[in-house]
Write a structure and sequence with these properties.
The protein contains nine helices and six strands, in the order αααααααααββββββ. The chain is of the alpha+beta class. It has a six-stranded antiparallel beta sheet. Helix 2 packs antiparallel against helix 5. The chain is elongated.
């Protein structure tokens, strides 16, 4: 006969625990839903975070520029070394052919000198290191052998140097890729933050920046600073002609710039070659410690690691390429976001 048992009922303790857990989950969901709107950062908070990300992106950009400059320099050096090795090998072949002609002449006149024969079938370096063999050869043969030995050693050194530079180039390319990813990551994070703003908030931020730029332009026009002259004047005039040109990291003009790209391009238009990165530019010229001693066209550096540079525009203003999302413009040196460190007169 089948057994009919009543299903086991959950204990009162278990029911209480489940009910309490369910209630807590509902309460937490309700709190999260109510808290969500207040967690959205405001316009000023977003701006502060975005500015910080842009500063970090610019720091990475200058390191990227340094790696890129090193890569280009290494590529040129390797190309030169490879050309030298190719030419040296041709010269070495000609020297060996000349020595072979001597051997042929000896053979026709009665046989090859055993010492010369040994050289032609062995390593010249090892052979020539045995000085006792030299007195068995003619003066002309000795001179030819010494030239071959010198050329071989030179080629060996150049090949070794090229090999080391190729390793350095590979490491530099890896570093370049890392810095590029870092810059792009910072810029992507900044854009995501900006996308959280409403159209009204974005318009308000843009209007604030436009007011600041107009104020800086008035300060430059009404300034009493020493006017730029000579090559500094020519560099400043070139940069003025690029006002409104967009900032693009790693760019050196003429259609887009980053901060050190603008300054190096501007001075190039004046016939002066200055280094590519802001840190290197900081050591190129006479350092000016006081803002009061600056002249229009001087390079001005900001932040402790000198990752930002511009051209002094007079009356406490700078002409620079600020960051992604902006154009070349005038700006007060007090609103750059980092302290003025010093100027450099090129």
């Amino acid at each position: 006969m089948a057994s009919h048992r009543r299903p086991k009922q959950p204990s009162r303790t278990r029911v209480t625990v489940l009910t309490t857990a369910a209630a807590a989950a509902v309460a937490l969901s309700s709190q999260a839903a109510n808290a969500a709107p207040s967690e959205k950062p405001g316009k000023d908070e977003v701006k502060a975070k975005v500015d910080k990300l842009y500063e970090e992106a610019e720091q990475a950009t200058e390191k990227y520029n340094g790696a890129k400059e090193k890569q280009e320099k290494l590529q040129k050096e390797i190309s030169t070394l490879q050309d030298n090795v190719a030419r040296g090998q041709e010269e070495l072949n000609e020297l060996r052919d000349g020595l072979g002609s001597m051997a042929s002449a000896q053979y026709r006149s009665g046989g090859i000198d055993p010492s010369l024969q040994l050289f032609l079938s062995a390593d010249p370096d090892d052979y020539l290191d045995k000085a006792s063999t030299l007195d068995q050869l003619s003066g002309q043969q000795v001179e030819a052998l010494k030239k071959i030995q010198e050329k071989q050693r030179d080629l060996s050194q150049q090949r070794s140097e090229a090999s080391e530079k190729l390793k350095d180039l590979s490491a530099t390319r890896t570093e370049l890729g890392k810095k590029k990813k870092e810059v792009q990551g910072k810029l992507s994070s900044a854009q995501k933050l900006l996308n959280t703003l409403t159209a009204k908030e974005k318009a308000a931020l843009q209007e604030e920046q436009q007011r600041s730029t107009r104020s800086s332009e008035r300060q430059v026009l009404s300034g009493s600073s020493t006017p730029a002259s000579g090559r500094a004047g020519a560099a400043f005039a070139a940069a003025q002609g690029k006002i409104g040109t967009p900032y693009v990291y790693g760019a050196t003009g003429p259609s887009s710039f980053d901060c050190s790209g603008l300054t190096s391009w501007a001075y190039a238009q004046a016939g002066v070659g200055i280094p590519r990165t802001s840190q290197a530019q900081a050591n190129y010229g006479t350092r000016i410690s006081s803002m009061g001693d600056l002249q229009v066209g001087d390079l001005v550096f900001f932040f402790g690691d000198l990752h930002h540079v511009g051209l002094y525009a007079g009356n406490g203003q700078v002409l620079h390429a600020p960051r992604t999302g902006t154009n070349v413009r005038y700006e007060s040196m007090n609103t750059i976001g980092g302290p003025f460190m010093f100027g450099v007169r090129v």
